[in-house]
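User: Before I run my own analysis I want an independent prediction to cross-check against. Here's the chain; please return only the structure tokens and, at the end, one sentence I can use as a sanity check.
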Amino acid sequence: MVVLNKIYTKTGDAGETALGNGARVAKHSMRVTAYGTVDEANATIGLARLHATSEMDSQLAAIQNDLFDLGADLCRPDMEKDAESEYPPLRVSDAQVERLEAEIDVMNEALEPLRSFILPGGSALAANLHLCRTVSRRAERLSVELATMEAINPAAVKYLNRLSDWCFVASRIANNGGLDDVLWVPGANR
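Assistant: Structure tokens:
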């Protein structure tokens, strides 16, 4: 259980922060940038939830929880020491990725195939889901970059990749099952 009884600690005033294993690193380190962007993606999901109802809201709530898991995963380096740890760190699992895939498949069954690229917009929910999609893609790119420097959980990258796909398909559902998608018209304003 987490207990937060004092919000400011002043330990980061010199530009460093603590990772999940206690190591201190610069706040601009690639690892902090990656999990900070995952946190940003989570905040955009919160905005989308303001417009979601019923099943999609429940799915978005599960995604928010997953993103906290993912942030905790990225916050904890030294994957090779996981087995030795008295308290194994939280890692994103392939089952979480597979759940997103199953939800994408169900949503996609209700949609007509795309014949054009879609512009972000339409309903408020769809527009917010497009924002979630792009921030998730940025978190994925940063996590992939981190993986070139340090070992990270491959399921974390897979999750972020599927999440952006999930948000895209969900945005189409939010646009009246794709009927109200805003289509790109190449060269329309030449």
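Sanity check: The chain has a mean pLDDT of 93.
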